[in-house]
Amino acid sequence: MGASDRRPTRSRWLVPADVTNKLVVVRHGHTEWSHSGRFTGRTDLSLLPEGEQAARRLQPELAKLGPFAAVYTSPLRRAARTAELAGFATAIPDPNLMEVNYGADDGRTRAEILIDRPGWDNWTDGYEGNAETIDDVAARADRAIATVRAIDGDVLIFAHSHFLCMLAARWLGAAPLFAAQFVLDPTGISVLGWKRERPALVRWNA
Questions:
Q1: What is the mean pLDDT of residues 158-185?
Q2: 84 partner at 20 to 30 Å CA-CA among 10, 47, 70, 183?
Q3: What is the DSSP string of 82-111?
Q4: Alpha-carbon torsion (158, 159, 160, 166), positive or negative
Q5: 66-98, pLDDT tens digit by residue?
Q6: CA-to-CA distance for 21 and 145, rounded, in angstroms?
Q7: Residue pair 28/82 in contact by the 8 Å Cβ criterion
Q8: pLDDT in tens, 41-75
């Protein structure tokens, strides 16, 4: 094939120009385990009082970013309570938005795991027991993105650190492991949107 015959390949992550809705994502407030650095997957913890206070402080900032055509939350208590305190008590629970299932490593700290498994990395080595793989989490994120992009209007999601990092990676069309490059603090607000036809990271961990 000559140079004049080459045509650029259209990325599958380019979308029709009429898909312009943005996705605002919020990590839940502090829990006892987030304070102590424990992997908190499906263990259904409540917010600490300071986590509840921080969730209430989300209201004016989210009001600036709205209105929202749809609001979803992980069904886990810490995310759903954050949504409620932020002014979105009717957020729709979606199991796709739950935190990673860490299996037997749920509730452990990285330091504890490294004693048993020197050199361990959660993104590349995974978790023990009946845990999700990185591809399992990416598949859930892809399903959530498909739901968002089918909605006529902006969308707000309340969920969890590692899942939302994966959601951002997949929104951008990146491989699942790219999620390891993101850091998201409790009650951090991020905006996923567009630069013309390309998915874009508009704002992160504000």
A1: 97
A2: 183
A3: HHHHTT-TTPEE-GGGSPP--GGGTT-BHH
A4: negative
A5: 999 999 999 999 999 999 999 999 999 999 999
A6: 11
A7: yes
A8: 999 999 999 999 999 999 999 999 999 999 999 99
Measured distance between the N- and C-terminal CA atoms of the chain, rounded to whole angstroms: 48
Cα dist from 152 to 68, 156, 181, whole Å:
10, 13, 30
Catalytic residue positions?
Answer: 28, 99
Tens digits of per-residue pLDDT, 109-118?
999 999 999 9
Phi, psi of 202 (to 5 degrees): -85, -35
Ramachandran angles phi, psi of 190, nearest 5°: -135, 155
- Per residue in 5-21, pLDDT (tens digit) is 333 333 444 444 455 78
Across 1-131, the runs of DSSP E, i.e. the strands, are 23-27, 70-73, 92-93
Q: Give CA angle at 37 (35, 43), nearest 5°.
A: 85
Angle at 159 between CA 133 and CA 206, to 5 degrees: 115
